[in-house]
Amino acid sequence: MKRLSLVSVRLASASIVYITVILLAGCFFFQSASIAYSMSQPAGKSLRSIRTDQAAYRAGGLGWIRRNTEKESLPQFSSCRALKARLNAMTKASGGKSGTPFGIYAPRATFGSGRSGPLSGLVDSGGDGADDHSTTNVQVAGVDESDQVKNDGGYIYMVKGKSVRIIKAYPAGELHELPRIDFSGSSFNPAQLYVNGNKLVVIGSDYHDYPQPLDGGTGPVKTITPGRTLFAASSYPSYLPPSSLTRVIIYDITDRAGVREERNLTFEADYLQSRRVDDTLYLIMNQYPQYIVTANSPQGLVPRYADSTRSCGDEPLCDCEQVSYVPGSTESSYLIVVAIPLQDPAKEIGSKVVLGAGQNLYASKDNLYLAEISYIDEQDPARYYLNGPHTLIHKFSFDDVKISYAGKGKVAGFIINQFCMDEYDHHFRIATSGRWNARDEENISSNNLFVLDEDMKLVGSIENIAPGENIKSVRFMGERAYIVTFLQVDPLFVISLKDPSNPQILGQLKIPGYSEYLHPYDENHLIGFGREVDPIEADKLTAGGAIPSTALLGMKLSLFDVSEVTHPTEVFKEVIGYRHTDSELLRDHKALLFSKADNIMAFPVTVTRKIDQSADKYQDFEYIFQGAYFYQLDLTSGFEKKAAITHYDNPDEAFLKIGYRYYGGEDEIRRIISIGDHFYTISDSKIKAIGRQTYDEDMVITLDK
Predict the structure, then answer these.
(1) What are the residue ranges of helices labelled H in 73-171?
(2) Structure confidence by residue, pLDDT tens digits, 381-415
(3) Is 601 helix (H, G, I), strand (E, B) or coil?
């Protein structure tokens, strides 16, 4: 009996030792994994940030180690628990707030695919278009950009209020409006268009309301989704704002008078930008997670979407395990890239979801680059960048509907628009502005140009360009970059990028004024669109270091000759109007019509003139014109104004009443296009067909209200 007891004791002891060894091994494994993860982080990363990441990973178990061994260039979450832990950690780090003003509480209602309003009748169909017609002015050849007006050589498609109008435009003698696509009975607001063969794509915003707590914020919240009852903490208010949606509707326009909706997609996110390459639309969106803290499923944690070609209603756009994140980033919003096939409604969409954000988009025919301005030091999220903001660049590669995260880069400074970015010969180039040193009492701004390789690693740069000035416009053209900076005069810098590792400033030109948009004329000439500046008034800098408004004069057109790169010259210039003369072109390049074959350009413009006897120097002007200016441009004669077209019936009387207060209206020309032998000026009230040779108003139609 004693012997049996002794054996039992020994077996029990052995079991305890064995269990202890297993537990110690498990702890050692977890600790080793944590150390390995910590060592994998960038040098200097804060211990708190590393522990936050580790806590998020541990919440999801050991799956994160498996994920890190995959080829995905960013780590992905191992489970919904891990994603939730990460979001919670970021929420606490930001003071308890997530995407909504009310913290992480935001129950979401189910939304449907939605339908557009009915067509208002059948009138006309078919017809061949002109072979010669303008297209949207885009940054990269072969990469289409959305706009409020499109044409296909036979028809004009335009957004007007809560409708999309279709106008038969060719031949000009048959100019008339077809039945509209009407959204007046819905919450959908159309904004942007694409035309791809016999498909019309309408992109716009929508919303849906959140369900409200039943007892003022402390009780259960019933959602439309069956079986879901959620609870609100008493500290959260009962009112929640509507949730933003992005809707994409694809129409078959084979019969323009009988347009047929083919696919309707709704995404629970805010529209940022988009591009079309061949037959695929690439949609970029941001969404702040509006989730319940107790959620552990994709339905409650990741963005959702609805597709009219699927019968399952709304569904998660991805699984939790497919969400990627940037190590060290404190961003708690989703950056969403979606690829939508336009010619095959039965084909699945592609998507990629990353915890991140973006403000500007550059797209080549193979890659998308999303620029995100960051004021937080990734190495220590508790600190702000001492030398001003940085720009994070997210690179996505695509092949049809397949989207992959291809890398991430970081450079000092911020960008002003998409033209600050470019891809050429497997390199990414970016021009930024920013404060050179925030600790410097003078806090002088500077400008930079960086070159990154295809892995988004920095290979070359020029920093501290034109200290004290800011970038106004940028244009990359092959192995060169052209940068306009401004404080009191306009330096145009010519930069060689022939050697990506050693970019060099070749020459510069200093002239009064500045260009806000640069457009290539040919390989040795650039057209600048900007503002003329009074150099005497510009010397009177304000307390903030800016020039006073009295220094800004009219809109300026410049033709730059850069054939002699060390000595660029402004060979011609034209100044339109006086102070407060303005054009949408200065903010949106798509407002420009330019035909190199005809040396013709046109753009919308609002013109003022000086009042000589004004007692108030800030109101010494009056508005005299709104419409389209047409110019002929060549290298020998410069700018020659050919026509000024307005849609105001009595412009002299109308602008006499306006004085120095102009707020636009439905007669304001927004776009100018060309089809065959005519130009077409387009406003919300009218479309005019203008003879291409004579500039006569050959045909005018008034659009239905």
Answers:
(1) 80-93
(2) 555 556 678 999 999 999 999 999 999 999 999 99
(3) strand
Beta strands in 298-345 (DSSP E): 304-307, 314-316, 323-325, 334-341
Q: What CA–CA distance (Å, rounded) separates 368 from 326?
A: 17
Closest by CA to 330, choosing from 45, 49, 72, 44, is 49
Distances (CA, A) of 311 to 128, 308, 315: 37, 7, 10
479 touches 454 (CB < 8 A): no
- Residues in the chain predicted with pLDDT less than 50, given as ranges, are 1-12, 14-72, 96-126, 212-240, 291-294, 436-439, 543
Determine the pLDDT at residue 658: 73
In 3D, which of 675, 682, 678 has the Cα closest to residue 584?
Answer: 682
pTM: 0.83
Q: What are phi and psi of 420, to 5 degrees?
A: -80, -5
Output the CA torsion sign for 530, 533, 539, 543: negative
Token duo for residue 662: 């102009």
Angle made by CA atoms 318, 320, 323, in degrees to the nearest 5? 75
Residue among 245, 146, 100 at smallest CA distance from 187: 245
Residue 51 has phi, psi (to 5 degrees) of -65, -35
**β-pairing verdict for 220-222 and 229-231:** antiparallel
Q: Which amino acid is at 574?
A: E
**Would you state the pLDDT for residue 295?**
53
Measured between alpha carbons, how far is 581 from 539 in angstroms, rounded to an integer?
A: 22
DSSP H or E segment with residue 686: strand 686-691
Q: Which helix (H) or strand (E) holds 195?
A: strand 189-196
At 113, list the tokens: 């695919």
Q: Which helix (H) or strand (E) holds 18?
A: helix 2-40
Q: Residues 469, 473, 476, 481: is their CA dihedral positive or negative?
A: negative
- The DSSP H or E segment spanning 66 is helix 63-68
In a 13 Å sphere around the CA of 140, the CA atoms on its Cβ side amount to 23
Confirm if 127 and 170 have CB atoms less than 8 A apart: yes
pLDDT tens sequence across 497-545: 999 999 999 999 998 889 999 999 999 999 999 999 887 665 555 545 5
Output the 3-class SS for 540-565: CCCCCCCCCHHHEEEEEEEEEECCCC
How many of the other CB atoms lie within 10 Å of CB of 103? 17
The helix/strand/coil state of 449 is: strand
Query: How far apart are the C-alpha atoms of 258 and 178, rounded to whole Å?
Result: 9
**Are the beta carbons of 554 and 566 closer than 8 angstroms?**
no
**In this structure, are residues 190 and 204 in contact, taking their beta carbons and an 8 Å threshold?**
yes
| CA 451 to mean position of chain CA atoms | 22
Residue 311 DSSP SS3: coil
Give yes or no for a contact between 513 and 560, defined as CB atoms under 8 angstroms apart. Answer: no
Contact status, residue 360 vs residue 340, Cβ threshold 8 Å: no
Torsion sign (Cα): 574, 576, 580, 585: negative
Provide the pLDDT for residue 566.
Answer: 96
Terminal C-alpha separation, the chain:
103
CA 444 from chain center: how many Å? 28
The structure tokens listed for 674 are: 């060309």
**CA angle, residues 361, 192, 526, in degrees to nearest 5:** 55
By the 8 A CB rule, do 314 and 371 touch?
no
SS3 state of residue 26? helix
Q: Which is nearest to 514 in space by CA: 542, 493, 545?
A: 493
Pair of tokens at residue 670: 């927004």
Q: E strand or H helix at 398, and its extent?
A: strand 390-399
For CA atoms 379, 385, 388, 394, the dihedral sign is positive
Residues in the chain: 705
Of the candidates 396, 422, 416, 421, which has an alpha carbon nearest to the alpha carbon of residue 408?
A: 396
Peptide bond into 171 cis (omega under 30): yes
